[in-house]
Amino acid sequence: MSQHAEAVVIEGADPHLYNEDLAPTAEAGRTWTWTSIAALWVGMVVCVPTYMLSASMIEQGMAWWQAVVTVLIGNVIVLVPMALVGHAGTKHGIPFPVLLRSSFGTVGANVPALLRGLVACGWFGIQTWVGGSAIYTILNAVSSDWFVGSPLPVLGIDLWQFICFLGFWAIHVFFIAKGTESIRWLETYAAPFLIVMGLALLGWAYVKAGGFGEMLSTPSQFVAGGEKEGKFWDVFVPSLTAMVGFWATLSLNIPDFTRYCKTQKDQLLGQAIGLPPTMALFSFIGVAVTSATVVIYGEAIWDPVALLGKMGGWAVVVALFALVIATLTTNLAANVVAPANGFSNINPKKISFKMGGYITAGLGVAMFPWKILESSGGYIFTWLIGDSALLG
To answer: What is the set of domains in the chain, with CATH numbers?
Structure first.
């Protein structure tokens, strides 16, 4: 056995079980500190689906603080398995599919790895659609809606919506072709910018509405006399399940990232700082801005892409461009690495990490993600609940 710069090279290893992408991380490749893991989580958390999930709970009847607390509880719950599973990645330097071999065998490990990979393919499609929608909105913002057309048969979206979706998809394919280092580079530099843009959006909403609006002072619809009196648990339980399911995928394949950590303290501290607090903060931004839109536009707009489309002006172009970049960083880190490794594990000799990434990209398109996001109810109860059930 010998070592090169980042991975352990095992001479004479079975090519049906081994390639350099699945090999244990060598000492030289363990360069991540707790700040690296925290930054990774910030980059993944600050995204449109996080904003949409918290805001959509308002539509289901929750008060703002109930929605934020639900998000926080869900992430504290999922942090426990996240840290425990991440421990193995740091200790052995191996990715998720290889770790599974100790429990399921070399053949059986493909089953859970593929289940996790298919869920990531769905998330990949959702995030790609969100980014493509932002590009579509930018084009119409600078052209007075020149690109708006009639929905295409079967697809249910117009031609330029589909072209923008495929264009954003092609950008992902470019970074997949460049490998994991390009993904890490993009993640590091783009994520902090989105935090600034999120806070800027919060400030805009506060100034424009003269406060965050009545929604933050309005009780939930579950109180006595409310529209959904006595039905709090009917909404809270599936919402909490959805919140756990939101990052349940990463609790499985977190070794794909913690394998690069220097110590166990780095992976544990980084996750504790990067996940629950950031989710709570950004979910509050989603709830507060949605509340302000009731005052500004007379309706609750929980989709930030639709909101930016209403704002108008060149500031919208800048904001949407930032949204496109940040969505790209989230999607590549959260929804490409795991399935790419999973598909590679099926046949390491023929499927590299890059080929696994191409397969992920193809399946993400085939899932028609815009159908999943047609309504907040469909987003929470169709996709996220199914996501949680699949992962078991």
So the answer is: 33-391 (1.10.4160.10)
